[in-house]
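Our consortium's second objective concerns turning raw sequence data into structural hypotheses that experimental partners can test. To show how far this objective has progressed, the report includes one record in full. It was chosen at random from the queue rather than selected for favorable results. The single chain below, 330 residues long, was entered without modification.
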Amino acid sequence: MDSEVAFKIKARMQDSLLPEQMKKLEVVLSEILGKEKHAYDPTKENDDVIQQFLSAKRIEGCSKRTEQYYSTTLYFFKNKIKCNICTTDTNSIREYLLNYQKINNCSNLTLDNVRRILSSFYNWLEEENFIIKSPMRRIHKIKTPTVIKPALSDEQIEVIRKSASQDKRNIAIIDMLLSSGIRVSELIGLNRSSIDLNSRSCIVFGKGAKQRETYFDVKTKIELENYLKTRKDDNDALFITSRKNGNSGTYKRLTVNSVEKVIRLIGKKSEIEKVHPHRFRRTMATRAIDKGMPIEQVQVLLGHTKIDTTLRYANVQQSNVRYSHQKFVC
């Protein structure tokens, strides 16, 4: 009850008091309410508020991985500021972000991800009437350098495929990622029943539990057929572990971490740097655009809500830009 009374008082006074005055109000509330049966702790509300926010994101269809990222970022923030989240002011958050970058030696891109999560959190607090006005309104997007992340070349792809060719599961995984452009989280969610080998298509569940149909090439179809012929289990998962689980004695569905580990090992064996699942996705987008596929259709294939996201994934080859310039301008 004390916590609820204190919260209502602070919520009503927040718009009328300066940050220093709000901090003094918290001290006074702590002294007065502390004389009752139990002391009022201004930071005790933080855990409850964060959990309510995470629950709201879960209801909205936020993935477990994204939810964990939100949780880690917000609890780290809570532990560092050591005050009531609902009364934190803009300057305190700016100072936190500066210290975060110094302590973690992170890039502007990583720092902007932290800012984005805090902005989402405080916007939610405002919408739910926990606070009058979000302190993040005056903290704008952090500028990040545009780094061109290269797609895999045809030669690199063949070297990678050769390195993985001895394992039927791994070569099928690589070809599926490369030809369909699906996310690794979507790959591990595939079931045998969601694959249509005849039409070379599959149903995936992307971010926000959005369902879409995507496609793969003939090479992938052949590798999938070869892999499925080796399967003697009844697990519906399309891709499973190579060995049985020690406790259950059954094969398990692959996880994101296990697929990333497999791809990294193949990249190391191929002596090619920065080989990871997401690079296959970017390569597919780049190839599709270079061959003339409309950007709107690439957007649908990748499952992007905004076309700007698709443009960041695709790196158009400079030779094609030169050719188009000569064709349409010269």
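The partners drew two points from this record. The first helix runs from residue 2 to 13. Residues 36-40 have pLDDT under 50 and may be disordered. Both points have been shared with the crystallography group to help prioritize constructs.
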